[in-house]
Amino acid sequence: MDGQGRAMWKCGICAQEHDGLATVFGAEAPDPWLQAPPAAREGGELNADMCVLNIEGEWHYFLRGHIEIPVTDAPGDVFAWSAWVSLSEDNMQQIAHHWENPARAFLAPMFGWLCNELPYETSTMSIPALVHNREPGLVPAIQLDPSVDHPLVKEQRTGIALHRLAEINQVVLG
Question: What is the distance between the alpha carbons of residues 156 and 70, in angstroms, rounded to a whole number?
Fold first, then answer.
């Protein structure tokens, strides 16, 4: 809050302060990358959208996407967790091959496991998900398995109020 009671947040990209509530928060890397020893990271690769990591002799593949949650009392507004999911080697190769191709939007949804611990009381690690690719320039959409009993899954399915968005901002930004 600023001195006049308005919500303010500092952008991690442009370093500017903005009015209102932030509508995207996320992790810069999958948690296994962050927890890996330096030697494992040296043999892997991380960029803004993809990650490859060798853990104990086995290669793991990760893709960044958005878990989109509608804001129910602000029609058309969406909050997103920018998060990472694990993918099979075949699926990662298919995405990498089509990454700059508009046809990637037509790839079949791909199964993955959520690979970030988001700020919820119960763990968000390994929630099953489907990754829906979109055209270049758009981050893939992560659809969490609706049969999983977890607050994050429920929020994605039913949406959140602006009050909940303010709570998330407070938890993440302090």
Answer: 7
Contacting residues for 83 by C-beta, under 8 A, at least 6 apart: 26, 27, 64, 65, 66, 67, 114, 115, 116, 118, 142
Q: Whole-model pTM?
A: 0.89
Half-sphere exposure of 132 (CA within 13 A, CB side): 8
In a domain, 114, yes or no: yes
Q: Which of 86, 71, 78, 60 is nearest to 138 (CA)?
A: 78
Q: How many domains does the chain have?
A: 1
Any domain includes 117: yes
Model confidence pLDDT, tens digit, residues 20-69:
888 999 999 999 999 999 999 999 999 999 999 999 999 999 999 999 99
Q: Tokens 């928060």 identify what position?
A: 25
Residues 6+ apart with CB under 8 A from 56: none
